[in-house]
Automatic annotation (TrEMBL):
It comes from Neomoorella glycerini. Keywords: Hydrolase, Iron, Metal-binding, Nucleotide-binding. PANTHER family: BIS(5'-NUCLEOSYL)-TETRAPHOSPHATASE, SYMMETRICAL, SLR1885 PROTEIN. NCBIfam families: bis(5'-nucleosyl)-tetraphosphatase (symmetrical) YqeK. Its EC number is 3.6.1.41. This is bis(5'-nucleosyl)-tetraphosphatase (symmetrical). The keyword Electron transport does not apply. It holds the Pfam family HD. One of its GO terms (molecular function) is bis(5'-nucleosyl)-tetraphosphatase (symmetrical) activity.
Length: 188
């Protein structure tokens, strides 16, 4: 873990590094509550934004070459690709081969239907780590203490509202992730 801390401290801006530390700690705590290996969650949380500060053209080049682009929206907003590209680079550059970690990193940006518990933890930890402050974050943190899936649902909905308020297009995977949870919970 120490080598990754040093690597990230040199690679990320200070604010993003602090955010990554917060996500790592939050993910480890959620992992303990939800029966997931806390060290696996801590590592995924720590490294989740590995590619976040790459230039848009670099994200597009890497994602395009690896076949990671799933929709036209990602070509228009390459920042949405930082999760999948991050997972790609973690394997290539750091030799991380734990598929659960790589998938959780890949899915943390926009979510996905059928997320694993680790996927949910990393998505949620990214939203509720202590440095995050937005209307509704306390309700999501409170839900996370007792019901991971309910908290994830609230986090996805907060993300959707945020994007709508900015008058930006929604990534289909975020909507699919929300609908998947709603349907799985049997509300419809």
């Amino acid at each position: 873990m120490k080598k990754y801390l040093q690597l990230l401290a040199a690679r990320l801006p200070a604010g993003r590094y602090r955010h990554s530390l917060g996500v790592a700690d939050t993910a480890a705590g959620l992992a303990v509550k939800n029966g997931v290996d806390p060290e696996q969650a801590r590592l995924a949380g720590l490294l989740h934004d590995y590619a976040r500060d790459l230039p848009p053209e670099k994200l597009l080049d890497l994602a395009g070459a690896a076949g990671l682009i799933t929709c036209d929206l990602e070509r228009r907003l390459p920042v949405l690709l930082h999760g999948p590209v991050g997972a790609l680079l973690l394997e290539r550059e750091l030799g991380i081969t734990d598929k659960a970690i790589l998938q959780a990193v890949a899915r943390h940006t926009v979510g996905a239907p059928g997320m694993t518990t680790l996927d949910k933890i990393i998505y949620l930890a990214d939203v509720i780590e202590p440095g995050r402050q937005f209307a509704g974050v306390q309700a999501i943190r409170k839900a996370a203490a007792t019901d991971l899936e309910a908290a994830l649902l609230k986090a996805l909905e907060a993300s959707i509202v945020y994007v709508l308020d900015k008058e930006q297009p929604l990534h289909p995977a975020t909507v699919e992730a929300r609908n998947y949870i709603l349907l799985a919970r049997g509300g419809y």
